[in-house]
Specification:
TIM Barrel; six-stranded parallel sheet; Jelly Rolls; 18 helices; alpha+beta; Immunoglobulin-like
Length: about 850
């Protein structure tokens, strides 16, 4: 047997020695070679070289728009190492190219590519020399290419001027109503040389299923061969090993391994997340030619869409347990995603889990995230709803898009299907809805719009490669809907009685109390805007003075009529402040109140409502947006509203007919038994009426308690509220809007205690009623964090806040009027 025949596959990252230059551009960069970091994009190379200002500051976005209009060429080189020279095959592998490029090796063109959302494997065996080998990747301007393709394919409806739907590039890189337009180009994911002999694993698909206390792992592989040799496939899981022979003529194999006494994987809040390594090896006479590892969890997962008397539910079951979905939408965490490493993913996803979330929806206008994202979701128990990458636009079904879309779908279905966290694949974001309601049919005038992908191609690919993965054609989507080749059939895509819905009328045209006009089965998108934290705002905008409508603020507000909607959405609840700092707090508070109000309502409808997914968790740059965590990673008050509303045990007060009721939801494994206290209390602390009710709520169930008229009827609506207390959970009912209420000076006092690990415990006592007390700790230090917010205290009550990231702290500082914020401050209370 030759040396080459037993040579294991060698993977060598090609990350060093790259440079990039533009074909044109401003004089300071034109035709100059610039050191390049790979993975990365040209913006980051220019920024490191000091050739451009930070795109995230002030109006640098428009000053840097030229980058997307220029062609860019990357160049790198490598020499074959001695062990690589013995291999039969050499392949250049790009995990991601952004986006339209010509790849050349030693002067020979080897590929023309135009898809950010897939990888490329290019055979360079006959092109390499024993000396230096030069690789060039020449990128075309994405703006000019998209414009040309829009003409070639025919213009199709979209919400923004740039035709992002004419090429396979992250839609939001052309800008969105929360996002900066970067029009980036670059080798944005790893590039490497793979050298091998005889055979390699070209595809590995793994599926783990529980069976009682045991589990089964099914592995299917595809093999690329350079020679005809009999091989063996070995799979090892939890100490159990199985091997099957592969004849010299075969290029695929399957194997099944049964594992005893496996532990079930559960979503966050429902149990542990045990994961098992599946180790796959392709052997030649006992020597591994190639290998792969997949981490799996043993769980059953399905969505129940069986019609009932109220329509069609969309209820998630994991291990035969109904899971109330507490979700959040995810966008790329940076406008330059190559900057997002595993630590940053971990920070963001741990913030989500700490806010009592159990599902993250990866929105269809961004990217398929890196393996780190899905690894961490598996580990943290955060379910992943993954959109295919189509958003808010009509897409051509003709080539070259058609072939590219099939290639990217096949690759990413196979890549993600083994994930324990993967709960749903969805065909698009809002396209099936847009086709019905946004005037597309007239504009399309018979042209294709994407139905083939959503109703035919994607289901077929999933059925072939991953039949265990649930699929929905769109979000929103009504089960039972379809496409007959001419029109969509069945219920309207955004019908609240069926499946999933998006609720945007409240933000766009109505006010947030009207969320109660809806009884949705499942809400996949809704949200309210608010500015970033003060530290993030003032770092990114240098306006002097800063006002809601100063130039930098407008640049960092991408929503159409965004500031007008902020104002109209506030004025029914609080007066619009005159000074920017109070305006900033008012808008953050109203954002939190709007979303918290909606979540309380949706959850009170359970099990009729089976979940809600807030738009959105994160930002990709510093901006006024719907996010709960801003572009610098700081938590806005909204995150505390989500955390409070998604607490495992909650009580809220809701309207019921002509009266009120307390709704208790127990999302734990234990029965919740206690006494429910219902009180009508004056703002001065006087109890005007009260009743005690014994309650017992079964695990994962809800109960409703009618509130007697004596408690539910106010004597003075402006100065009274209902307080529902049980086991430390509290629900509130305000009889009047804050602006019409008697909120006054809360007379706060504080005690500060430094703890051993360097943090501080701050105990705040209210001398009078304080509404939505929140400590804006970034005012103390840009690195500070606090563990809770939006705390309402009755006179004499106290709350403990933990603050980290501040070296020294005293009571006077933490109670400063710009740090200790409340609703009282917005209606005259200090």
């Amino acid at each position: 047997m030759s040396v080459a025949s037993t040579l294991p596959l060698i993977r060598r990252p090609l990350a060093e020695g790259w440079r990039v230059r533009p074909n044109g551009g401003p004089a300071q960069v034109a035709d100059a070679w610039i050191p390049a970091v790979v993975p990365g994009v040209v913006h980051l190379d220019l920024l490191r070289a000091g050739l451009i200002p930070d795109p995230y500051l002030d109006d640098n976005e428009s000053a840097l728009a030229w980058i997307g209009l220029v062609d860019w060429t990357y160049e790198g080189s490598f020499a074959l190492e001695s062990e690589e020279q013995a291999a039969d095959r050499h392949e250049l592998v790009f995990d991601g190219l952004d986006t339209v490029a010509t790849v050349t090796v030693n002067g020979r063109v080897i590929a023309e590519v135009a898809n950010q959302h897939r990888s490329y494997r290019l055979d360079v065996t006959d092109l390499l020399t024993t000396g230096d080998n030069t690789v060039t990747v020449a990128f075309r301007s994405p703006v000019r290419y998209a414009d040309a393709q829009s003409v070639a394919l025919g213009a199709r409806p979209r919400p923004y001027p740039s035709p992002f739907n004419a090429l396979r590039k992250s839609a939001c890189s052309f800008g969105w109503d929360w996002g900066i337009a970067t029009y980036s180009s670059g080798i944005w994911r790893e590039v490497r040389l793979e050298s091998w002999s005889d055979a390699r694993l070209s595809d590995v698909r793994v599926h783990a299923t529980p069976d009682g206390t045991d589990g089964t792992v099914r592995v299917a592989v595809e093999i690329e061969r350079a020679s005809a040799l009999p091989l063996d496939l070995t799979v090892q899981v939890a100490g159990t090993v199985q091997t099957v022979p592969i004849a010299a003529s075969e290029t695929s194999a399957e194997i099944e391994v049964r594992v005893s006494d496996v532990e079930r994987w559960w979503p966050a809040g429902h149990g542990a997340q045990p994961l098992y390594d599946v180790e796959i090896a392709l052997l030649d006479d006992g020597t591994a030619l190639d290998s792969a590892t997949r981490r799996v969890g043993f769980r059953d997962l399905r969505w129940d869409t069986t019609a009932d008397a109220s329509g069609t539910p969309f209820t998630l079951f994991v291990n035969d347990r109904p899971i109330y979905v507490k979700g959040v939408n995810w966008i790329p965490d940076d406008a330059f995603p190559s900057r997002v490493d595993r630590d940053r993913y971990r920070t963001r996803l741990e913030q989500a889990k700490a806010a009592n979330l159990n599902l993250v929806r990866v929105w269809g206008g961004g990217i398929y995230e890196s393996e780190d994202f899905y690894d961490l979701a598996d580990e943290l128990g955060l379910l992943v709803w993954q959109d295919f990458l189509f958003a808010c636009a009509a897409y051509a079904e003709e080539d070259p898009l058609r072939a590219e879309i099939e290639a990217e779908a096949r690759e990413n279905v196979a890549r993600l299907a083994h994930r324990a966290s993967l709960a749903l694949l969805t065909g698009n974001n809002e396209n099936t809805w847009g086709y019905e309601d946004w005037g597309w049919k007239t504009l399309l005038d018979g042209k294709s719009w994407g139905a083939h992908y959503y109703y035919e191609l994607f289901p077929a690919i999933i059925d072939e490669l991953a039949p265990h993965v649930p699929y929905a054609p769109g979000s929103p989507f009504s089960p039972g809907a379809g496409w007959d080749g001419r029109q969509q059939t069945g219920p309207h895509p955004n019908d609240e009685a069926h499946g999933t819905m998006h609720l945007w009328e409240q933000w766009n045209r109505r006010d947030w109390p009207t969320y109660r006009d809806h009884r949705p089965r499942f809400v996949a998108e809704f949200g309210w805007q608010g500015p970033p934290t003060w530290s993030t705002l003032t770092r990114s905008i240098s306006d002097d003075p800063i006002t809601p409508d100063s130039p930098g603020m407008i640049v960092h507000q991408k929503a159409a009529d965004g500031n007008a909607k902020l104002g109209s959405g506030l004025v029914a609840h609080y007066p619009i402040p005159d000074d920017i700092e109070t305006w900033h707090w008012a808008m953050q508070l109203n954002q939190a109140n709007a979303v918290g109000f909606a979540l309380d309502w949706f959850r009170s409808l359970a099990p009729h409502n089976a979940g809600a997914i807030v738009w959105q968790l994160n930002d990709c740059w510093p901006v006024t947006s719907w996010a709960a965590i801003d572009g610098d990673g700081r938590e806005k008050p909204l995150l505390f509203a989500i955390k409070n509303a998604f607490d495992p045990r909650v009580v809220t007060v809701q309207p019921s007919g002509d009266g009120l009721e307390a709704v208790l939801h127990n999302d734990t494994d234990d029965t919740w038994s206690d006494s429910l206290s219902l009180r009508r209390i004056g703002f001065d602390g006087t109890v005007h009426a009260s009743v005690e009710v014994a309650v017992s709520i079964a695990p994962r169930e809800s109960t409703r308690v009618a509130i007697p008229d004596a408690v539910a009827t106010p004597g003075d609506a402006s100065a009274e509220l209902i307080v529902a207390d049980v086991s430390g959970a509290r629900g509130l009912w305000w009889f009047a809007e804050p602006r019409d209420s008697a909120l006054a000076e809360p007379r706060l006092t504080a005690e500060v205690e430094r703890v051993a690990d360097g943090g501080h415990l701050v105990t705040v006592t209210a001398g009078a009623l304080v509404r939505d007390l929140t400590l804006l700790v970034d005012r103390l230090s840009p690195d500070a964090r606090v563990d809770r917010g939006l705390v309402t205290l009755l006179p004499g009550e106290r709350a403990v806040f933990r603050i980290d990231g501040v070296a020294e702290l005293d009571a006077a500082t933490v109670l400063g009027p710009l740090v200790a914020r409340s609703g009282n401050q917005l209606v005259g209370g200090r």
